[in-house]
């Protein structure tokens, strides 16, 4: 494949400021795409083809304003990566309601709003790829992650329903369930608990960026037009 395989693509990445989101945004930039980034704070990427928008995806009005702003840059989006997420890991009985609500807003409502607005632009071109970043928590259901796991399980269901709704527009919707990867989010969790979970996987190692980018490239490919309503988990999670 060409080193500039996304030369003519416009890609929207949420949570593009750091961690997995930044790695994804930089991957698309290296491969020739124009990248639009949504994040609550200022940009950390400097590139002539990168456009940053300060958007809180957990706030529907902020998402609407973000799309109004990006339409001044482009009226076309071909690929969306719903990556932005928040995590509070705590037993259900002591979970602050505000923390639980924040996870619902960012991890579930956010992808709904972003996908909804992006699909309106994809409909004009009759082509699109919506890729959600899920989590092994949806399948493994670890103690302390009740709301986070529920949101990530819901994310797959969201994609599967949207896949049916958007199929006639040649827009696919898929989910990538990542396992542990070194990030700010991971640092919030007890290391010994994470290592215990990873040790029980068929591929017992932490993920690296290339593991994630490999699946994203698969979902985003022109050749993946019949791949929709699917969830791929890294590490052998099932």
UniProtKB/TrEMBL annotation:
Pfam families: adh_short (PF00106). It comes from the Bacteria. SUPFAM superfamilies: NAD(P)-binding Rossmann-fold domains. It comes from Polynucleobacter hirudinilacicola. Belongs to the short-chain dehydrogenases/reductases (SDR) family. This is Oxidoreductase. GO terms for biological process: monocarboxylic acid metabolic process. PANTHER family: 3-OXOACYL-(ACYL-CARRIER-PROTEIN) REDUCTASE (PTHR42879), 3-OXOACYL-[ACYL-CARRIER-PROTEIN] REDUCTASE FABG (PTHR42879:SF2).
């Amino acid at each position: 494949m060409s080193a500039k395989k996304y030369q003519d693509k416009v890609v929207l990445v949420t949570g593009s400021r750091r961690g997995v989101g930044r790695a994804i945004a930089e991957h698309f930039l290296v491969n020739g795409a124009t990248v639009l980034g949504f994040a609550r704070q200022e940009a950390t990427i400097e590139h002539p083809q990168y456009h940053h928008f300060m958007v809180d995806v957990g706030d529907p009005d902020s998402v609407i304003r973000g799309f109004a702003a990006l339409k001044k840059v482009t009226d076309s989006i071909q690929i969306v990566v719903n990556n932005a997420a928040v995590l509070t890991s705590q037993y259900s009985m002591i979970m602050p309601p505000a923390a639980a609500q924040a996870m619902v807003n960012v991890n579930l409502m956010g992808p709904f709003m972003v996908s909804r607005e992006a699909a309106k632009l994809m409909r004009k071109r009759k082509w699109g790829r919506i890729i959600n970043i899920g989590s092994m928590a949806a399948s493994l259901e670890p103690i302390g992650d009740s709301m986070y796991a529920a949101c990530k399980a819901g994310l797959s269901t969201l994609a599967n329903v949207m896949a049916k709704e958007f199929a006639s527009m040649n827009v696919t919707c898929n989910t990538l369930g990542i396992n542990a990867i070194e990030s700010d989010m991971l640092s919030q969790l007890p290391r010994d608990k994470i290592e215990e979970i990873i040790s029980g996987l068929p591929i017992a190692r932490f993920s690296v960026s290339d593991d994630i980018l490999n699946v994203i490239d698969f979902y985003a490919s022109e050749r993946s037009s019949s791949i929709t309503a699917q969830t791929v988990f890294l590490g052998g999670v099932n």
